[in-house]
Write a structure and sequence with these properties.
Elements (H helix, E strand, L loop, with lengths): L1 H22 L1 E8 L3 H12 L7 E8 L1 H9 L6 E3 L4 H7 L16 E12 L19 E2 L7 H16 L4 H12 L2 E3 L4 H9 L5 E5 H9 L4 E4 L6 E8 L6 H11 L2 H9 L3 E2 L25 H9 L5 H8 L3
Parallel strand pairs: 1-2, 1-3, 5-6, 5-7
Antiparallel strand pairs: 3-9, 4-7, 4-8, 4-9, 4-10
Helix pairs in contact: 2-10, 3-4, 5-6
């Protein structure tokens, strides 16, 4: 009887144990460098929700372009959060992200920002406009546009800023060439760029607004200037086609667009895609703010500026020994 009872007890417990094991899911988040602190808080907040109960995370952060290429080369990922859309669309072309990834009301985006000038306290060189950056003796830090998504936003902000000032497309490219001669360091990622600047290199660091907020919150002696003409940065997020945990991954993405989650982004310096979450935060508007469409849209921009063989930036990098 004892043997029968024990066998019966095990039989009854096995389904329960199996159900408990299946509830424990690990999602792998592969993201660009700057939102690491934000995602630390967001993951914890998600795990406290009913949908996130029992979900653990593996997290990887680095330069956006390098992260995208790593996923394409086989790096495991359930959720990819990058700096710019082309780093997602390159995975779409390899069938690693669904073609309809951006068909929601947010167009696939999860946060926004703008390109700013991070300067030393007191802005000793009085850098306020794009033309100020090409004055004699001004040293510029920007990440490498062939590894960093943030750097590509910087390039297009400078080019579009020149167009906004009345320059022709050719004159705007000439301005970009002059600006690049003032670049004294090109770290791999935006976060590495900030570390380089904080270590004392350069007079100005071209960066996301959220990086400036991050530095100030850490008590660093910097301030930032938002030029009159700058670009609206839009950061995409998607679930991979290879994810074995799509239900949990979709729940995480849904959570990231809730007002509570968007407020956490805002507290980390990101401009929310959910407008209600921006209340109580100071995100200045600029009179000549423009989007990537103003400078041609990513497909044209990628070919014209960032083709590694024929692009404008490849030429500038070669001219500068980059």
């Amino acid at each position: 009887m004892r043997r029968i009872s024990l066998a019966l007890l095990i039989a009854l417990l096995l389904p329960t144990l199996a159900a408990g094991a299946s509830k424990d899911t690990k999602l792998t988040l592969v993201a660009y460098s700057t939102p690491k602190d934000a995602y630390g808080r967001l993951v914890s907040a998600f795990q406290k929700t009913q949908a996130g109960n029992g979900v653990s995370f593996s997290q990887s952060y680095g330069a956006s372009g390098e992260q995208s290429r790593a996923v394409a080369a086989g790096l495991d990922a359930d959720v990819v959060a990058f700096s710019l859309e082309p780093d997602i669309t390159s995975l779409v072309q390899k069938n690693l992200v669904a073609k309809d990834w951006n068909k929601d009301k947010y167009k696939g985006m999860v946060t926004r920002s703008v390109v700013v000038f991070i300067v030393r306290d007191g802005n000793p060189k009085k850098l306020k406009t794009w033309n100020d950056l090409i004055k004699p003796g001004v040293q510029v830090i920007t990440p490498n546009p062939f590894t960093s998504g943030g750097a590509r936003w910087n390039v297009m902000a400078a080019y579009g800023g020149a167009l906004r000032s009345g320059k022709t497309p050719k004159q705007a490219v000439d301005f970009l060439g002059k600006l690049w001669k003032h670049v004294v360091a090109q770290p791999t990622s935006a976060r590495e760029g900030l570390q380089t600047f904080l270590a004392g290199r350069g007079d100005v660091f071209l960066a996301y607004e959220n990086e400036a907020v991050f530095a100030q919150k850490k008590g660093q002696p910097v301030q930032y200037v938002i030029p009159k003409a700058t670009i609206l940065i839009e950061n995409p997020i998607a679930i991979t086609s290879t994810s074995k945990h799509k239900t949990e991954a979709k729940a995480f993405l849904k959570f990231l667009r809730t007002p509570a989650a968007q407020k956490i982004y805002a507290e980390n310096g990101y401009r929310p895609v959910v407008s209600s979450a921006a209340r109580g935060f100071n995100f200045p508007t600029r009179p000549q703010l423009f989007t990537i469409k103003y400078v041609g849209g990513w497909p044209k921009v990628e070919k014209k500026f960032f083709d590694p063989n024929t692009g404008i930036m490849a030429h500038f990098q070669g001219s500068n020994g980059g």
